[in-house]
From TrEMBL:
GO molecular function: glycosyltransferase activity; nicotinate phosphoribosyltransferase activity
Lineage: Bacteria, Pseudomonadati, Pseudomonadota, Betaproteobacteria, Rhodocyclales
UniProt organism field: Aromatoleum bremense
PTM: Transiently phosphorylated on a His residue during the reaction cycle. Phosphorylation strongly increases the affinity for substrates and increases the rate of nicotinate D-ribonucleotide production. Dephosphorylation regenerates the low-affinity form of the enzyme, leading to product release.
Pathway note: Cofactor biosynthesis; NAD(+) biosynthesis; nicotinate D-ribonucleotide from nicotinate: step 1/1
Sorted UniProt keywords: Glycosyltransferase, Ligase, Phosphoprotein, Pyridine nucleotide biosynthesis, Transferase
NCBIfam families: NAPRTase_put, PRK09243.1-3, PRK12484.1
Record's protein name: Nicotinate phosphoribosyltransferase
Function: Catalyzes the first step in the biosynthesis of NAD from nicotinic acid, the ATP-dependent synthesis of beta-nicotinate D-ribonucleotide from nicotinate and 5-phospho-D-ribose 1-phosphate.
Reactions this protein catalyses: 5-phospho-alpha-D-ribose 1-diphosphate + nicotinate + ATP + H2O = nicotinate beta-D-ribonucleotide + ADP + phosphate + diphosphate
Top enzyme class: ligase
Length: 464
């Protein structure tokens, strides 16, 4: 098992289908280029991490309308049979250029471009945004947790409160890509070889007549992978019970690996438990904590020098609780050989197909990006590269572990201030003069077209 099951073609917005019929009616099937980008960084985020590309490519390769979907479209009364017949043969035959997953990116930088016949490129908008926005949002939150943890064990605990099954599964993937050690979500281990970690629930303790019986039962059932949850009743008393239990288990070759604390003053309880365990000869037993953690809580625990070896982070990470969406878009940038751009107030876009070039300083740290047209050579590393041509991948899907290494290298190459959790001076992203000139030329062309119509042309808004 490698990825998600094919998404139904009707997992989309209604307006994609109504526009498609109008495109077909008008013979508008020439080549279009759409780009996905984030308009502005969320508060507290100094950078973002691209994620979700593999699921997008899988979706495009498998896109097709099933017989049941076509029958529903025919019965709903909104669409003509001739159009539905054309949908039956629809396949994605276009090109995709994108940043590799795990790449650091900033506002206004396209991380993916789709170039395809207009109906195809339009239809896929909703699912592409759905996949890229969510995983990039989670990865960008998760990487902050990884930075705060400073190399300590960091496990995704978020499935149970995720906003749906797919979200829980994809958040396990995105968080591992961004630097988490692993996940408690079993299916993520099956699909992507994400390392799996698990402990026990309070219900396991409560189901036994006494706490020590629960600990011994679990240790004998899981002699090589046991983490004991010790805060169900009295955290310090439970730690002392483990010391006595460890002595009884030792002749059978069973060792207690770790304890988990899920409530209370985690720093203070960790200190007290550490003293008890060390005094009882269990200095090798690790302390793992959980309970509504995020990057700020992790940072505070690390700064307090609490004797904590690992963290379970869930809800606040995989819902990105402080900022649960990205202000992102998938916009038409070119159609029928003509650059296009949106000029709405506050949402104006840069026209045409674009490339992002990244420069490095003498220490190989990122020093600035240049946003320009694809046909303008520039110094630096081009970040968007070919991923799909004529509807087929150019390369096999990379292993998630390789994407994780790429993400780690990207974060390591950031200027120091940007890796902090507090807001820093914005990273320099320069818009090339050539791109600005193209935007002006597009605006002039649009104004001429507007002036030739019955309605007066509005004033052109400022550049984004």
């Amino acid at each position: 098992m490698t990825d998600l099951p094919p998404a139904p073609a009707l997992l989309t917005d209604l307006y994609q289908l109504t526009m498609l019929q109008a495109y077909f009616d008008g013979g508008m099937t020439q080549t279009a280029a759409f780009e996905f980008f984030v308009r502005k960084l969320p508060p507290q985020r100094n950078f973002l991490i691209a994620a979700g590309l593999e699921q997008v490519l899988d979706y495009l390769e498998t896109l097709r309308f099933s017989d049941a979907e076509l029958e529903w479209l025919a019965a709903c009364g909104r669409f003509r049979q001739e159009f539905i017949d054309r949908l039956a043969a629809l396949r994605f035959t276009g090109d995709v250029d994108a940043m590799a997953e795990g790449t650091v990116f900033f506002a206004d930088e396209p991380i993916l471009r789709v170039t395809a016949p207009l109906p195809q490129a339009q239809l896929v908008e909703t699912r592409i945004i759905n996949l890229l926005q969510y995983q990039s949002m989670v990865a960008s939150k998760a990487v902050r947790c990884a930075i705060a943890a400073g190399g300590r064990l960091l496990v995704d605990f978020g499935l149970r409160r995720a906003h749906g099954a797919e979200a829980g599964l994809l958040s396990a993937r995105a968080s591992y890509l961004a630097g988490f050690s692993g996940t408690a979500t079993v299916l993520a281990g099956v699909k992507w070889d994400v390392p799996l970690y698990g402990t026990m629930a309070h219900s396991f303790i409560q189901a036994h007549e006494d706490e020590v019986s629960a600990f011994e039962h679990f240790a004998r059932s899981q002699p090589r992978a046991n983490t004991m949850l010790i805060d169900t009743y009295d955290t310090e008393a439970a730690a002392r019970q483990l010391v006595a239990l460890a002595q009884r288990l030792r002749p059978d070759g069973i060792a207690i690996q770790a304890v988990r604390i899920d409530s209370g003053d985690l720093a203070e309880l960790a200190r007290r438990v550490r003293v008890i365990l060390d005094a009882g000869g269990l200095d090798g037993v690790r302390i793992f904590v959980s309970g509504n953690l995020d990057e700020h809580a992790v940072r505070d625990l690390v700064a307090a020098q609490a004797p904590i070896d690992g963290f379970g982070v869930g809800t606040r990470m995989n819902t990105s609780a402080d900022y649960p969406y990205l202000d992102c878009a998938y916009k038409l940038q070119e159609y029928a050989g003509q650059p296009r751009r949106k000029r709405s107030e506050g949402k104006a876009t840069w026209p045409g197909r674009k490339q992002v070039y990244r420069s490095h300083d003498a220490q190989d740290r990122f020093s600035g990006d240049l946003l320009t047209t694809v046909d303008e050579p520039a110094s630096g590393e081009p970040l968007l590269r070919p991923m799909m041509r004529a509807g087929s991948r150019l390369e096999a899907a990379p292993a998630l572990a390789a994407l994780r290494r790429h993400a780690a290298a990207q974060v390591a190459a950031l200027p120091d201030a940007l890796r902090g959790l507090d807001p820093a001076a914005p990273y320099p992203v320069t818009v090339a003069d050539r791109l600005r000139a193209l935007a002006d030329a597009v605006d002039r062309r649009v104004r001429r077209g507007q002036q030739g119509s019955a309605s007066p042309a509005p004033d052109a808004p400022d550049h984004p």
